[in-house]
Amino acid sequence: MNNIIIYGAYGYTGKLIVEEALKRGMTPTIAGRNAELVEQLAKSHNLPFVAFKYDDQAAWDKALSNHELLINCAGPFSLTIHEILPACIRNKTHYTDINGEVLVFEYIHSLEHQAKEAGVTLLPGAGFDVVPTDCLAKYLSEQLPSATHLELAFDSSSGLSRGTALSVLNRFHQGSSVRIDGQIVEQRTASVNKTLLFQGKERNVVGIAWGDIFTAFHTTGIPNISVFTGMPVKTMNTMRRASKWAWLIKTSLIQKIGRYIIRKKIDGPSQEKRNSLTAQLYGRVWDSNGNEVVAEMVTPESYALTAKTAIMCAEKILNKEVGAGYFTPAGAFGADFIMNFEGVTRKME
User: Fold this and answer.
1) pTM for the complete prediction?
2) CB-based contacts of 29, cutoff 8 Å, min separation 6
3) CATH of the domain spanning 4-127+305-333, picked from 3.40.190.10, 3.40.50.1110, 3.40.50.720, 3.40.50.300
């Protein structure tokens, strides 16, 4: 199957997705900005390749003309999506990505009408951002259809990939966010925290601007949504202090320095970590009458899971299991989609 193109394929997560595609019998086209890295990766797997900058529209038209689906791994997605997505719609190429940025989901959703007219499926968030949390949100909403509030949390000790760290740096100055009565409300970075139980163990969690602030609302219709991630108190306090300097952190000089440090210091979890670690998820819904449902989920390590979910989403789109327009993972494939993956468990309290 050579109808898939993976852009940003030589990044940490992109490489994992390429490897998973090969395991599933696919022969994807390798693509990205850096010609040397693209060619190196492609030749190591004997795959076709093409290299061009994300804003080269002529190159996109040529590359997408003979591909049915793009898996976009080129983050920070807020910097690339405005060039990449219109090219997909223009060339009638289905789009999926591993994005977890609220503003990017908003933008992709805003082009749903154009996608429907072109017969194109838009399914962003096909990785750990946001497949397991989206499926958990839908599962909980089905247990309590009257729910007015949704609280999601996850805890993973595997660390960040370079791409994820760059995305965090890019949007740090924007702080966190929640959804209140249907509207997204911004908060200061790490300003909200609480203690939750994951697998019976207490963990400090901090509110973040995770993609579910947008996607879970689209999936469930629940108007009040908050998302938390496990974080040591020391790290939380450091982030709170840093948030006072948000105006400085967003300047081009500090962003440039930050990107340099991240590229020098961060790669991503080792294969040993990917094989041995898990991620724990927590979800709770409640309504105005005091009814409440709580559920927990355990998944494989987040980057290992991302490779598998991204490829399965791509397969389902190509198999026409979802139509044209904008979809969330659980919106397209149901709450039990996540249960297709080995190592995933779910229980309701």
Assistant:
1) 0.92
2) 2, 4, 5, 6, 47, 48, 49, 50, 63, 67
3) 3.40.50.720
